[in-house]
């Protein structure tokens, strides 16, 4: 089990990596899935052998409330159908923590339940917020779970200039599920999971 990293340099590096992704040109991305709630693109990841996914959609709510539903906290488990448990293991400051969470099986359990331990950081970005995370090799792996690994991931939530009660939510996700899995199953699951994330989030915000 590794020791916990120093939170400040890790948070800065993580934020800078996500801003780099956010500045990639449209030509770098290939369309993976489009629904009424979100569009998902992908490109080969520079961190591992899978893909970096980009998801984007307009959400009818203010930035702070949306991010409160996404980042570690009491709301996330209520609405995110993929997440089955979540515990805050360490808190560095109000916007910075280490969390352990588990996910449900997917694709008729071809993808078995997974466990992740992530460093999470939320900060301001332009007129909105960025909440981002990266997995840590920390804590004992619980039985019956494969330990997955999130390479730098994050969500930019920016109010629309002409309609501040709506926000543009853009996510960057690159999850290494690990274990013996066909890559095609992972790719199918990732695109659908990201599109469903938007529809589930929108329903939760309306309640």
Automatic annotation (TrEMBL):
Record's Gene3D superfamilies? 3.30.530.20
Task: Give Gene Ontology CC terms.
Answer: cytosol; endoplasmic reticulum
Q: Which PROSITE patterns match?
A: START
One GO-annotated biological process of the protein: intracellular cholesterol transport
A single GO molecular-function term is: cholesterol transfer activity
| Superkingdom classification of source | Eukaryota
The START domain extends over 10-207
Q: Which Pfam families match?
A: START
Q: What is this protein called?
A: STAR4 protein
**Organism classification, top ranks?**
Eukaryota, Metazoa, Chordata, Craniata, Vertebrata
Query: Which gene is annotated as encoding this protein in its UniProt record?
Result: Stard4
């Amino acid at each position: 089990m590794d020791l916990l990293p120093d939170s400040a340099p890790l948070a800065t590096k993580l934020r800078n990596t996500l801003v780099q992704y956010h500045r990639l040109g449209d030509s770098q991305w290939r369309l993976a899935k489009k629904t009424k709630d979100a569009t998902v693109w992908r490109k080969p990841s520079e961190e591992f052998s899978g893909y970096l996914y980009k998801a984007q959609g307009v959400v009818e709510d203010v930035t702070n409330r949306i991010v409160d539903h996404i980042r570690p906290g009491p709301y996330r488990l209520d609405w995110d159908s993929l997440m089955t448990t979540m515990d805050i293991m360490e808190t560095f400051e109000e916007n910075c923590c280490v969390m352990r969470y588990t996910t449900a099986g997917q694709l008729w359990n071809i993808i078995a339940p997974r466990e992740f331990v992530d460093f999470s950081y939320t900060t301001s970005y332009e007129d909105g917020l960025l909440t981002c995370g990266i997995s840590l090799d920390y804590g004992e792996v619980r039985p019956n779970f494969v330990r997955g690994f999130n390479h730098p991931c994050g969500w930019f939530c920016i109010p629309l200039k002409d309609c501040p009660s709506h926000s543009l939510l853009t996510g960057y996700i690159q999850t290494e599920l690990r274990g013996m899995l066909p890559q095609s199953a992972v790719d199918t699951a990732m695109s659908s999971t990201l599109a469903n994330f938007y529809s589930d989030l929108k329903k939760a915000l309306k309640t």
